[in-house]
Amino acid sequence: AAMTTAERMHVGRVKESGCASCGSPGAVEAHEIEQGQWFTSVGLCPDCHRGTNGLHGTKAYMRIRKQTELSLLNETLRRLM
User: Measured on CA atoms in the order 16, 43, 36, 50, is the torsion positive or negative?
Assistant: First the structure.
């Protein structure tokens, strides 16, 4: 299904919130914890999202930092408040 206006607005804010994993400021990518559930999107820089050691790679960064997708969502929401 197409994103709603509210979902688009939320994801736009997530993409400006900085990386919830490494703390890199500025524009990031929105990772959906579950496909199509845009309100649970996590802000991640390209390396922490799609890089070799990132969430869609070996997840080494997340293990080193003791992070889960839920803790990344918590950090994303904290940054949005």
Answer: positive
